[in-house]
Amino acid sequence: MSGLVVVLLAVAVVVILALLAAATAGKLARLDGATYPTALARAATTFAAFLTLAATLTTALTAALR
Fold this sequence. Notes:
Number of helices: 2
Helix content: over 70%
Number of strands: 0
Radius of gyration: 15 Å
Distance between the termini: 22 Å
Largest sheet: none
Mean pLDDT: 95
Order of helices and strands: HH
Low-confidence stretches: none
Oligomer: single chain
């Protein structure tokens, strides 16, 4: 497999996991009684935090493996 394919698959996996985490956060917020806009904001925050964490870990691992 070429390096580009591996990178694209890794990005796809991270985005899918971020979407699952965001959906879970939104559902939990709704079950807790939050309004739809509040639940959507919590889901968006979770999605952004997950992607930020993934980028930070990628940067740290890249620096550590060089």
